[in-house]
């Protein structure tokens, strides 16, 4: 059992969705993590982790990346080793963005979407994106480090109607 009072240590974010109907272009959803320093907690992220990337120090990794939603269970999984993050980082936002084909997609057009944030066997949050069904991206949670160095999680669901590049630049404004 996790002891959240002592701070979060290692967290997993899982994302799943159903594949597109036959003949339609594939849905590609991506988990995105943005890290912020104490001197700029709402500005530009120090770095981003999303498809085909990991944090420079290896503390945030994407262990599964699906481009279609095919498979069983969670199609994408990101692991955040918060206890290993440099003291310089005090905030990490996690979100989900839809890689949009030219015609664009919103969460309401993707069947059976679900994202789960958990530490060990304790679920911290779970969303189906119904509240942001008209959006193309959403921040789902915020991890913040207190003055004692302990990490806490705050559930946050804020939708954005933008592409991945603009979403990454705007993530820090989510509160």
From TrEMBL:
CDD domains: TerD_like. It comes from the Bacteria. Residues 5-169 form the TerD domain. InterPro entries: Stress/Tellurium_Resist (IPR051324), TerD (IPR003325). Belongs to the CAPAB/TerDEXZ family. This is Putative cAMP-binding protein 2. It comes from Streptomyces aurantiacus JA 4570.
């Amino acid at each position: 059992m996790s002891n959240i009072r002592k701070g979060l240590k290692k967290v997993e974010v899982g994302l799943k969705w159903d594949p597109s109907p036959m003949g339609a272009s594939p849905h590609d959803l991506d988990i995105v993590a943005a890290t912020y320093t104490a001197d700029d907690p709402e500005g530009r992220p120090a770095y981003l982790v999303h498809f085909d990337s990991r944090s420079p120090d290896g503390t945030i990794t994407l262990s599964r990346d699906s481009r279609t939603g095919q498979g069983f269970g969670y199609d994408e999984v990101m692991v955040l080793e918060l206890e290993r993050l440099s003291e310089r980082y005090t905030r990490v936002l996690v979100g989900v963005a839809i890689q949009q084909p030219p015609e664009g997609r919103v969460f309401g057009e993707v069947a059976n979407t679900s994202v789960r944030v958990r530490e060990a066997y304790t679920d911290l949050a779970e969303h189906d994106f119904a509240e942001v069904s008209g959006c193309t991206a959403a921040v789902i949670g915020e991890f913040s480090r207190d003055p004692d160095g302990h990490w806490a999680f705050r559930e946050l669901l804020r939708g954005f109607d933008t592409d991945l590049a603009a979403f990454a630049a705007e993530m820090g404004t989510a509160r």
